[in-house]
Amino acid sequence: IMIVRIEDGDERARLLSLPRDLWVPDPDTGGNQRINSLVQRGGPELLIRVIREYLGIPINHYVQVDFAAFRDLVDAIGGVPVYFPYPARDRRSGLRISEAGCTTLDPTQALAYVRSRYYEERIDGEWVDDPQSDLSRIQRQQDFIRRALSRAVSRARNPGTLDQLIDVGLDGIVVDDALTSEELYDLGQGFSSFDPDDLVTYSPPVTEDEVGAADV
What we know:
Order of helices and strands: EEEEHEHEEEEHEEHHEHEEE
Strand content: 25-35%
């Protein structure tokens, strides 16, 4: 779950990632629940309501990307290069990186990488678990987005490629009724000169806890 803010006249974009297990007030029950559970129960309407009421952030548009659309978008930009300091794997998501160094992730491995919550690295011949799970995944996702933007921006300077990227996106993403394909095209053109290094990323300060049998 990510919140992106773009201001007119500002050359930067800002991205806030929310952990899927963030413990938030449930406006329907008066209790608390993990934010991911609220999305599953109430869809984007409930998610937006929680973000607005709990975090005080107004939301103007909504985009939901499914796994197939994600793979198609990665394919449209020719894969995404990611640097791995060690061989890495996630036996649940299917990630398999056999060698350290820069690897251009294809659509399937890119999805396995950004979904990885059980990330392991082989250090000195031993597989070492990542103890931070979802919090580390947020850092990997934000780094991946910056790298994917770099690939997309270089290709979106070609209007034909930009049309292709938007067509791929519109085939597999859900957007709110007020966000038109023309607005997406204008946004894409606006980003044609965007420097991905100007993407400012945030994640909320959190403490890990357990409620009942649930990690939050």
